[in-house]
Design brief:
single chain, alpha+beta, Immunoglobulin-like, 2 domains, four-stranded parallel sheet, four-stranded antiparallel sheet, 7 helices, Phosphoinositide phospholipase C, lipid degradation
Length: 347
């Protein structure tokens, strides 16, 4: 409650919080402090927000700094990075800390320290240590970031890391696609204004939930969607008239057991007012983590479809009854007048 409407600055930090408080009365504007790269680099890769590293030639001396530097070692090549003290002092609740292991964090990590883990390592941890991973994210803010080999700024599926409670699942926002549609849809739940609270079973430190074994945390939902019609769907780029052959794909993203995809039939040469009147049913074990995506495509050929529009939202945000589903472009911009008409029902 105390942190509502506040901005949290996540960064490396020089020294302790107590030292920051002592500096409040000190004139440290524009001064910098050296950080060892071992403070914030993982053993096998750098984080994507690593500040530039360079050899430190003359550590900055500050009034009130009584710490003595250890004698130089001939063979040691410790890289140093400078951080502005004014920035460092803003870091209170979200201090970046190198991730070593879940056991190391449990024994040594402070509640205000958080880790950044690359997607490759994080995916292995999800696969082989999901229970420990969830235990970790109940205690510490954990950030996942794309691997460095994604030279084209492609994205991974954020759902697999939301499933284990990761609070900051970083994506390449400049790259549209299903992954960014899930990201935007996830935060529709609060109007896109920031924090979304995780389900209780991902906040309980004694939880036994894992995505592969939901156990007693399952609250099954039987979801039925009657896709009735479409309204002024965008035309195919291959056609100057509204003669696309639209079909609708409904996907569920969530724990592995809930992943599902169903497709409607194709309505020939009518994107203006296509009618389907088809019913699709889904059984969802963990609706609190599930996302639903409606995607409209033009069937150009049996093996080639053209994206026309989509809408993604949390399953728990669905309302029952007759619903108008707006459609968004690849870039997340609302397509004026374009929508789907459906009847939603669940128990």
């Amino acid at each position: 409650q105390a942190l509502k409407f506040k901005v949290l600055v996540k960064n490396k930090k020089a020294g302790t919080l107590e030292e920051s408080m002592l500096r409040m009365d000190d004139v440290s504007h524009g001064e910098t402090e050296d950080l060892s790269d071992s403070d914030f680099l993982s053993e096998d890769e750098e984080t994507d927000d690593t500040i530039p590293l360079h050899r430190s030639k003359s550590p900055t001396k500050r009034r009130g700094d009584r710490r003595s530097s250890p004698p130089p070692q001939k063979k040691s090549k410790v890289k140093k990075a400078k951080i502005a003290l004014a920035l460092s002092d803003l870091v209170v609740y979200t201090k970046s800390q190198k991730f070593v292991s879940f056991e190391h964090s449990l024994m040594n990590q402070k509640c205000y320290e958080n880790n950044s883990i690359g997607e490759t390592q994080a995916r292995k941890l999800v696969r082989y240590s999901a229970k420990e991973f969830i235990s970790h994210t109940t205690r510490f803010i954990t950030r996942i970031y794309p691997k460095g080999t994604r030279m084209s700024s492609s994205n991974y599926n954020p759902q697999e890391f939301w499933n284990v409670g990761c609070q900051m699942v970083a994506l390449n926002f400049q790259t549209p696609g299903t992954q960014m549609e899930l990201q935007d849809g996830k935060f529709l739940d609060n109007g896109g204004c920031g924090y979304v609270l995780k389900p209780e079973f991902l906040r309980d430190r004694n939880t036994t939930f894992t995505p592969q074994n939901v156990g007693g945390y399952s609250k099954p939902m039987s979801l039925s969607i009657r896709l009735i019609s479409g309204h002024q769907l965008p035309p195919s780029s291959l056609s100057k008239t509204n003669k696309a052959d639209p079909k609708v794909q409904i996907e569920i993203f969530g724990v592995p057991e809930d992943q599902a995809r169903k497709k409607s039939s194709v309505v020939k040469s009518n994107a203006l007012s296509p009618k389907w009147n088809e019913t699709f049913s889904f059984n969802i074990q963990v609706p609190e983590l599930a996302m639903i995506r409606f995607c409209v495509e033009d069937e150009v050929s049996l093996v080639n479809n053209e994206f026309l529009g989509q809408f993604t939202l949390p399953v728990m945000s669905l309302n029952t009854g007759y619903r108008n589903i707006p459609l968004l472009s690849r870039e997340g911009i609302k397509l004026e007048s374009a929508s789907l008409f459906a009847h939603i029902w669940y128990y």
